């Protein structure tokens, strides 16, 4: 199976040792606070807004609540002032991250040039966009099951591609959609999409579950939606979140693409100020990245059974809706499947996930792709918020890529398996001699390539 990883993989570019980033976070700290009273909440809101602190959890001032976790990044020059103010108001805090820049530096290989990869693509490190583009090309070339497709262009006119994993068959199939990287700084998400593709291709012959659902389902995987933002997070600001759309004559940048879909757009949990991390754009689907996704999904929606969108952090499997507390009609089933997925995930390394509707267990937000997908009729729609629960937040160290992906794989395949069994009952007996020989011919070409 390692043949696959052994594909020759030449990197067109070499990234210098350090992130060649404009914005540094030397001495910035991330603080963890659980406000106890309404007065404390008010003081924290005031502090965060006057000092323009970077809210990691929740994302909006209004969502700071007594008894709930607050994670804020405080720039180095303000650390003392903020701590003094918290002390004065008798608000206790814990330092989650002592020096953000130190973590940022650790999350990319110091000497990427040493990584000449004769062994193939390394799935346990973070990759810049150029390498992910190259990876997509190589995956398509090296597998009979994978085709790369054009999805659309970004604000900065870069190409967005998705991969389709499809077992050749002449019977009609349904579709599972998964996207990653809608928020630039959540690097673990694109790492998971790549891991997912690798795992499917490595194991579809030996793993009975994958073999079974691939007979009925095509997998559409979009490793990075927000290509411009992802590149920007590598080259300029590691903690960039949004896309790179210029607003107000380029005096401010970026729409939160997960507030830009046409699901109660602009109604709750958003900002109309383009300096905000949760700016929802100038209108529903104002962004080309959003429109690219919408166009394909609209076209295929009657065949799509499941829409998965992968984020970090917080360790949640979230169900619709974020924009209203009214549960969707199939809420009970959505919850049961998510709970089963979370249990499978926990079985691997004991990582604990919370499951529930976004507006009830996290906070309300409109314009998410998850809500939109369910509203247009895709029955199973989930947001994954991957590791961790705040210890490293958006700067998850690379040594957690593998365990995170392994456990998440179990959750995702649990969901896909459920959907498969529901829509294709009795599919297990479908492995006929015809499909077996097809499998074998695929193996053969695989080895030959
Ligand atoms: C992949 O990257 C990880 C993290 O940098 C490193 O520890 C590991 O040795 C690499 N594996 C290979 C096969 O190069
Ligand atoms: C965007 O890129 C495409 C190629 O992908 C090119 O044909 C087109 O001219 C570009 N558009 C702009 C505005 O640069
Ligand atoms: C943008 O710039 C143009 C010309 O430089 C000016 O006429 C216009 O008022 C500006 N718009 C905004 C929103 O600042
Ligand atoms: C958004 O949805 C509403 C109906 O809910 C529709 O009237 C409107 O045209 C849609 N907007 C876009 C940009 O698709
Ligand atoms: C947008 O937010 C910034 C930063 O908080 C603020 O300075 C600016 O006045 C706001 N703009 C508008 C139009 O409200
Ligand atoms: C995260 O979870 C671990 C156990 O899984 C716990 O020890 C730690 O306190 C949690 N951290 C936060 C910030 O909640």
Structural features, described:
It is built from 13 helices and 14 strands. The chain has 449 residues and is α/β, with parallel strands linked by helices. The chain folds into 2 domains: 29-108, Metallocarboxypeptidase-like (Alpha-Beta Plaits); 126-424, Aminopeptidase. The strands form 3 sheets. Strands 5-6-8-7-11-14-12-13 form an 8-stranded mixed beta sheet, sandwiched between helices. A 4-stranded antiparallel beta sheet has the order 2-3-1-4, with helices on one face. Strand 5 (146-153) and strand 6 (159-165) form a beta hairpin. Helix 6 crosses helix 12 (401-423) and helix 9 packs antiparallel against helix 12 (401-423). It is globular, with a radius of gyration of 22 Å. The chain starts with 28 loop residues before the first strand and ends with a helix. Residues 1-18 and 429-449 have low confidence and may be disordered. The protein binds 2-acetamido-2-deoxy-beta-D-glucopyranose (6 copies). One 2-acetamido-2-deoxy-beta-D-glucopyranose binds at residues 109, 119, 122, 124-125, 398. Residues 1-20 form the signal peptide. InterPro entries: CARBOXYPEPT_ZN_1 (IPR057246), M14A-like_propep (IPR036990), M14A_act_pep (IPR003146), Peptidase_M14 (IPR000834). This is Carboxypeptidase O.
């Amino acid at each position: 199976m390692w043949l696959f990883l052994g594909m020759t993989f030449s990197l067109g570019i070499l990234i210098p040792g350090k992130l060649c980033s404009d914005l540094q976070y030397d001495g910035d700290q991330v603080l963890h606070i659980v406000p106890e009273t309404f007065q404390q909440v008010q003081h924290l809101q005031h502090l965060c807004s006057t000092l323009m602190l970077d809210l990691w959890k929740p994302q909006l001032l209004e969502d700071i609540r007594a008894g709930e976790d607050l994670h804020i990044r405080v720039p180095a020059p303000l650390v003392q002032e903020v701590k003094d103010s918290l002390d004065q108001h008798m608000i206790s805090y814990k330092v989650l991250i002592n020096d953000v820049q130190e973590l940022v530096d650790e999350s990319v290989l110091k000497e990427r040039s040493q990584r000449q990869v004769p062994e193939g693509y390394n799935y346990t490190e973070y990759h810049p966009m150029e390498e992910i583009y190259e990876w997509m090309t190589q995956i398509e070339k090296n597998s009979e099951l994978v085709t790369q497709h054009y999805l659309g262009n970004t604000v900065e006119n870069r190409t967005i591609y998705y991969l389709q994993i499809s077992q050749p068959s002449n019977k009609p199939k349904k579709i599972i959609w998964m996207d990653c990287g809608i928020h630039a700084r959540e690097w673990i998400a694109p790492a998971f999409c790549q891991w997912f593709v690798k795992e499917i291709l490595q194991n579809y012959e030996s793993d009975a579950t994958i073999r079974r659902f691939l007979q009925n389902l095509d997998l559409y995987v979009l490793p990075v939606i927000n290509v411009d933002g992802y590149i920007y997070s590598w080259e300029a600001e590691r903690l960039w979140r949004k896309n790179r759309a210029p607003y107000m004559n380029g005096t401010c940048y970026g729409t939160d693409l997960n507030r830009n879909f046409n699901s109660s757009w602009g109604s709750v949990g958003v900002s109309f100020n383009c300096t905000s991390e949760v700016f929802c754009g100038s209108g529903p689907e104002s962004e080309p990245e959003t429109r690219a996704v919408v166009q394909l999904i609209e076209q295929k929606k009657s065949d799509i059974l499941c829409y998965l969108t992968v984020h970090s952090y917080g360790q949640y499997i979230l169900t619709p809706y974020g924009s209203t507390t009214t549960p969707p009609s199939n809420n009970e089933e959505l919850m049961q499947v998510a709970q089963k997925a979370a249990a499978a995930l926990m079985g691997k390394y004991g990582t604990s996930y919370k499951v529930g509707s976004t507006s009830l267990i996290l906070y309300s937000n409109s314009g998410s792709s998850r809500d939109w997908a369910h509203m247009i009729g895709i029955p199973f729609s989930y947001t994954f918020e991957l590791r961790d629960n705040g210890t490293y937040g958006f700067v998850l160290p690379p040594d957690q890529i593998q365990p995170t992906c392994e456990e998440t794989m179990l959750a995702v395949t649990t969901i896909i398996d459920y959907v498969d069994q529901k829509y294709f009952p009795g599919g297990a007996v479908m492995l006929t001699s015809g499909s077996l020989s097809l499998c074998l011919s695929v193996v053969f070409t695989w080895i030959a390539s």
